[in-house]
Amino acid sequence: MEPVVAAATGFTIKSGWASAVLLAGPVKAPTILDSCRVRLSDPEVPAAKQPYHAGFGTARQAGAERTRLLASVRRFGKRSVASVLRSHASGRAICGVGVVVGSLIDPAEIANDHIRIHALEGQLFRGIVIDTAQKLGLPFTIWRERDLYTAAATALKQSDAVLRRRIAALGEDVESGWRAEQKCAALAAWMVLARGGVWVGSGS
User: Fold this and answer.
1) CA dihedral in degrees (149, 10, 100, 41; nearest 10)?
2) What global pTM score does this model have?
3) What are 82-121's pLDDT values in tens digits?
4) Which of 12, 60, 93, 112 could anchor a disulfide with 181, C-beta 3.0 to 4.6 Å?
5) CATH code assigned at 57
């Protein structure tokens, strides 16, 4: 019987979608096993991509329409994330999930309406990933994007410059391209992998 591969998944959260990267050990020289775009909102419901927006920076008012859109996002997004995590867990020991976000500010503390609705959507979409990971029994860690390389330099005991070179090199063979959101997801997965802890997935 072949040994189970230790791995971790990183997500970079965007509005209505996320970049997901599966990274496998060893920690000193990890490899990319998968890089994909995960839909967090139903493409057949365009307004669900920004459910708190009514258009042109104005807030969608509370009511039946907003409730319907939020329910659609949660239902569709959780199915999408669960499908990716179960696929990543097939034949592998998943250590956990790393989640990269733009901000962690409480929307209730934001006075500006436009900024607040963006914060509400960020909170919604990261919550989908976190809730799904928890339901599958996976530990998770959240990092703000602007703090990511500083945290990684400490966790992985390598300089910022070295980490940037190594992350860039990791994605050289990724056919879908290797953009900033994928690099962040990979770095988050690397830190989770370095921390350890195991959930053995069946892929079912």
Assistant:
1) 160
2) 0.90
3) 999 999 999 888 999 999 999 999 998 998 888 888 899 9
4) 12
5) 3.30.420.10
